[in-house]
Amino acid sequence: MVVVVVNVVVVVVVVVVVVVVVVVVVVVAVVVVVVVVVVEEEEEGEDKTTRRTKRTKKTKRRRTRRKRQLKKLLKTSPNYVT
């Protein structure tokens, strides 16, 4: 009789420990996924802004280069009057 009670208690303790471990693992996994998603969203936002500034820099460079080229062309053209 005592052996059966001890066996039942051991089984109940083992089941409770297993359930607690599973719950902890699931909670940790969910937290990790949420943190990773949030960090990725923040990084994407930063990438967009840096990409935009790079793009504007490139277009500014192109515009100034075009202006210079046009001025040179105008000066070298025969119709240019000083």
Helix-strand blueprint:
Elements: H1 2-76
Would you mind describing this structure in some detail?
This protein is mostly helical and 82 residues long. The chain is built from 1 helix and no strands. The protein has one helix at residues 2-76. The radius of gyration is 35 Å and the shape is rod-shaped.
Low confidence ranges = none
- Percent helix, as a range, is over 70%
Number of helices: 1
**Largest sheet: number of strands, sense, barrel closure:** none
Shape: rod-shaped
Using only C-alpha atoms, the radius of gyration works out to 35 Å
Would you kindly provide a brief summary of this structure?
It is built from one helix and no strands. The protein has 82 residues and is mainly α. Keywords: Membrane, Transmembrane, Transmembrane helix.
